[in-house]
């Protein structure tokens, strides 16, 4: 017999996901058109046809209306490291980056729309500050994932060094991609993004040589 409770739970989850995406998309559209500081949460709620309370239920901070994929990033990293099999952690993260680019995943997509989004960040002190905080949170989380996965203490210094190097390489590669997308083809931007990121990953592997983070697969 069908499991009505399971079907209802699945339907509720899909509705919540759709509502969250609607609110985020609406907010981003308004922020791009008018600037982050010039748009209120009330205006986002009206445009999305939901209550202000509903907006805050999904996004506790106004800045998080814009940075709505942090959880996705954390989940991708967790899955890549947790499902690495016999690959070393750094090799698993390299595979994740290349697969994300091949799949056109939003976290590695670089085009004019993404550049327009990041201009909103550049123009907003509040968003720049929140972006820095989120990067720090992801770096700390990645370091803990790496250390825990190989059976070392969560505050292992080498794990922190590896995480900081990898995320620093991603930030540089992504920023260069945004700059290059104005004059280069999409294929060239993707290739250069991965080349820069790979250089950073090789650096992380060199620093982690002799530890479980590098292994022999990178």
| Largest beta-sheet details | none
Helix content: over 70%
Quick one: how many beta strands? 0
Radius of gyration: 19 Å
- The global form is globular
Distance N terminus to C terminus?
Answer: 49 Å
- Give me the secondary-structure category: mainly alpha
**CATH class category label of the largest domain:** Mainly Alpha
Can you tell me the CATH topology of the largest domain?
Tetracycline Repressor, domain 2
CATH homology superfamily of the largest domain: Tetracycline Repressor, domain 2
How many DSSP helices? 9
- What's the architecture of the largest domain in CATH terms? Orthogonal Bundle
Q: How many separate structural domains?
A: 2
The chain-level mean pLDDT equals 92
Kindly report the oligomeric state of this protein: single chain
Catalogue the unreliable spans: none
Strand content: under 5%
Order of helices and strands: HHHHHHHHH
